[in-house]
Amino acid sequence: MQLTDGRVPTTSDGSLALWFDLRVVGKARIASEVWQFELAGEAGVPLPAFAAGAHVTVITPLGQRRNYSLCGAPQDRSRYVLAIKREARGRGGSVCLVDDVAVGTTLRVSEPRNHFALSPRARSFIFIAGGIGITPIYAMMQQLRASGNEDFSLVYCSRDRASAAFADQLEAEFGGKVHLHHDGGHPAQAYDFWPLLERPTAAHVYCCGPTALMECVADMSGHWPTGAVHFERFGVSYAARAADEPFVARLRQTDVSVQVGAQESLLDALRRAGVAIRSSCESGVCGACKTRLIAGDVAHRDQVLSDAERAQHIMVCVSRASGAGCELVLDL
Ligand code: FES
């Protein structure tokens, strides 16, 4: 990739992504817990191109790495648009960005990466979004319209109108293609997807939202053709579980032992020990951090490895030893 002003390539954090510095040129609250950020390069240099469904990793002022979908029109390379939900009970990354980043702040941002692109084989599309999961979907709808394809529809679920980012724009731009559903936070009032998914069509389904919504759609679309139903899961980043225990990872090539804390990921522990590991989604869905496993019992939490692959590989961003006292031996 050719470098332009303001872009800084680095692999020092273990990622193979290119990084560059972007200035916040716009910040606005667009829903009850959602802020829109507009990021631009220096002197109007066009930003790297992206296709709808792409995301970038942002380094927060506190040094955390967070992935956010690009929700602006892909044909507009003058800026990147992010919508960030302030997760008050999260791990602090979104709170830091919303509370501490203002117009004029410079943020280090990765080049766009895409695990959720529109299939070139698809001609019609059913979009299903829940909450902040609307972000990649909005970019998809803008990209399709720009290409002249109007064969799509959207079901957008949220607690209420106030929490639904882009609700006004979606209705204004896409009219009858958009169905907003508000459940008031009551599971009993959740949208019934069965009438939509009961009979498979030639459309491709793209779904992004909370885990419960994606599991519901997955359950109701199991009879659709293979490869026709797509999910974006990267927003569900690594989360330690209460029962997780510390363990040791031994690196065979260097004979170094790395202590992994109960509340940290194996990937974070390896980086802390100075081991360069390639990563992208950091949520077990892209396959970038696939590492050869020599020995040890693994609690696999990824969504990419087959059962056969799991005997010899581990996705270090989400998976870990199956319990205290277990040692994993990695081909690192
Ligand atoms: S970084 Fe994507 S699966 Fe680990």
Give a structural overview.
With 332 residues, this protein is of the alpha/beta class. It has three domains: 7-110, Beta Barrel (Elongation Factor Tu (Ef-tu), domain 3), CATH 2.40.30; 125-232, 3-Layer(aba) Sandwich (Rossmann fold), CATH 3.40.50.80; 247-330, Beta-grasp domain (Ubiquitin-like (UB roll), Roll), CATH 3.10.20.30. It has helices at 93-100, 134-147, 167-174, 194-197, 211-220, 266-272, 307-310; strands at residues 7-9, 18-31, 34-40, 55-59, 65-69, 80-85, 106-110, 125-130, 152-158, 178-182, 204-208, 229-232, 247-251, 256-260, 290-295, 298-299, 313-315, 320-321, 327-330. Strands 1, 2, 3, 4, 5, 6 and 7 form a seven-stranded antiparallel beta sheet that branches. Strands 10-9-8-11-12 form a five-stranded parallel beta sheet, with helices on both faces. A hairpin with a 5-residue loop joins strand 4 and strand 5. It is globular and about 60 Å long. Mean pLDDT is 89; it is low at 1-16. FE2/S2 (inorganic) cluster (FES) is lined by residues 279-282, 284-289, 302, 315, 317.
Which labels suit this protein?
single chain, 5-stranded parallel β-sheet, Ubiquitin-like (UB roll), 7-stranded antiparallel β-sheet, globular, 7 helices, alpha/beta, disordered N terminus, binds FE2/S2 (inorganic) cluster, 332 residues, Rossmann fold, Elongation Factor Tu (Ef-tu), domain 3
